[in-house]
Design brief:
This is ABC transporter ATP-binding protein. GO terms for molecular function: ATP binding. The structure is a single chain. The chain is of the alpha/beta class and 257 residues long. The chain has 2 domains: 162 residues, P-loop containing nucleotide triphosphate hydrolases (Rossmann fold), CATH 3.40.50; 75 residues, no CATH class. Helix content is 42%, strand content 24%. The chain is built from 11 helices and 10 strands. The strands form 2 sheets. The chain has a 6-stranded mixed sheet, sandwiched between helices. A 4-stranded antiparallel sheet has the order 2-1-4-5. Strand 1 and strand 2 form a beta hairpin. The N and C termini lie far apart (45 Å). Bound molecules: adenosine-5'-triphosphate. The site of adenosine-5'-triphosphate (ATP) has 11 residues, from strand 2 and helix 2.
Length: 257
């Protein structure tokens, strides 16, 4: 296997400025197919900016992003979604006034399986039916099929976050970028979400990169961790290696101080 077959994502010497602020500078990252990869670092380290550039929300100022062997630098989010690169957000982006199943159906349309006109006119019945079946399948996979017709606003926080995962899964991702999936969760909800993320990788064949501040969850879940500080690469390795790295300890103690 060549290195580009092994790595679903390669970020080469990425840079991103906002006016005079250098948010990300000469940052490189490689993500192997099938792994759960943590992107960590103190506040303001450049993690969210990196996600935004990879997922096409901002073009890079410098550097290159290669996904599944293809240079995707500066490509639009909708293009990337149809290639199987899907990103979730820290806050929930669900439609609270819609049912659970309708949210998942909408997630499927992000993968552009039907043309815009077909979607608006609802002319492609086969596409609609397939979206419906897949939406139920995903809810069942997440143990939420019993909630399919429930109003999203009525779900618990934990279920809303799991629904966010269902919406992302509906787009048939190969690579999912999860932005702080455990934020605002109690330990029990975090444990359930950790199990779900593991199952998404194991059973749905999705590679996962996640930004997260809950160190216990990150260390327990990730195969590989990349640490950023001041927009640059600070360390990269197994959870054990990263935890023992004096530069990482210093960066975290410094930020806590
Ligand atoms: N749209 C923007 N305009 C100006 N500056 C920005 C913008 N987005 C990010 N920055 C700056 O870039 C730097 C990196 O921010 P970023 O949000 O990427 O860090 P982070 O590691 O995700 O932080 P946190 O863990 O607090 O979310 C910060 O100094 C931030 O203020």
């Amino acid at each position: 296997m060549t290195t580009s077959e092994q790595h679903i994502l390669e970020v080469h010497n990425l840079g991103r400025n906002f006016g005079g602020i250098v948010a990300v500078d000469d940052f490189s990252l490689k993500v192997r197919r099938g792994e759960i990869h943590g992107l960590i670092g103190p506040n303001g380290a450049g993690k969210t900016t990196t996600f935004n550039v990879i997922s096409g929300f901002y073009p890079p100022s410098r550097g290159r992003i290669v996904y599944a062997g293809e240079d995707i630098s500066g490509r639009a989010t909708s293009d990337l979604a149809s290639l199987g690169l899907i990103r979730t957000f820290q806050g929930t982006t669900l439609f609270h006034e819609l049912s659970v199943i309708d949210n998942v159906r909408l997630g499927r349309h992000r993968s552009a399986k039907a043309s815009f006109l077909q979607r608006v006119l609802g002319t492609d019945r086969a596409v609609e039916q397939e979206a419906d079946e897949r939406a139920h399948e995903i809810l069942a996979f997440l143990g939420m099929d019993g909630l399919a017709e429930e109003l999203t606003a009525n779900l618990s926080h934990g279920h809303q976050r799991a629904l966010g995962l269902a919406v992302a899964l509906a787009a048939d991702p190969q690579l999912m970028l999860l932005d702080e999936p455990f934020t605002g969760m109690n330990p029990e909800e975090t444990k359930r979400m950790v199990d779900l993320v593991n199952r998404v990788r194991d059973e749905q064949d999705v590679t996962i990169v996640l930004i997260e501040h809950d160190m216990q969850a990150v260390m327990g879940l990730c195969d590989h961790i990349t640490v950023m500080n001041f927009g640059t690469l600070l360390a990269s390795g197994s959870p054990k290696e990263v935890r023992a790295n004096p530069h990482v300890i210093e960066a975290y103690l410094g930020s806590a101080a």
